[in-house]
Amino acid sequence: MISNARIATILRFDAALCFACGLPGLIAPAWLAGFLLPQQDIVLGLPTATVLWELGILLVAYAGILLLAAARPGLDRPVLLVSAVADAGWVLGTFALVAAFPASFSSWGIVALAVVALDTALIGLWKLRVLRGGTTPLAA
Q: How far apart are CA 36 and CA 108, in angstroms?
């Protein structure tokens, strides 16, 4: 079984990234909409700021779930595997959106999304490395 302390550390790192990414959507969704998608007033039939506010809620809630999982005794491989799959989905989804709608995003928005996707990928790879029995964390 994988060390609970190692799993908890990884999940806390992931929670911190999710919280940091979700907080701007909760606090300043209109600013975030202008920063990421300056020419896009509507997304999925809703105002862009509303969609980013809802995404902020989801990310902060997911951060809370990760923290609860990290605090649980007896963590095992499925928790880490499910969160690694979620990380992969986030990274693939980010790049798919930017590739599909490049003109919608600002240059700095694309940079910010790429940085978050890279961090998420590194955390996901760290999880997979621990699942495979590796002992050294990747540099994030």
A: 7
Going by the DSSP 8-state scheme, the letter that residue 137 receives in this structure is P
For the entire predicted model, the pTM comes to: 0.87
Minimal CA–CA distance to 109: which of 23, 40, 35?
Answer: 35
Q: Which helix (H) or strand (E) holds 88?
A: helix 77-100
> 43 pairs with which residues across the strands?
46
Per residue in 43-96, pLDDT tens?
A: 888 999 999 999 999 999 999 999 998 898 776 678 888 999 999 999 999 999
Query: Which one, of 85, 79, 96, lies nearest residue 120 by Cα?
Result: 85
Q: Among residues 81, 78, 92, 83, which one has the least CA distance to residue 14?
A: 83
Separation between Cα atoms, residue 14 and residue 76, nearest integer Å: 16
Question: For helices 29-36 and 48-71, what crossing angle results, to 10°?
Answer: 110
pLDDT tens profile 7-16: 888 899 999 9
Rg (CA), the chain: 16
Kindly report the backbone phi and psi dihedral angles of residue 101, in degrees, each rounded to the nearest multiple of 5, phi listed first: -130, 55
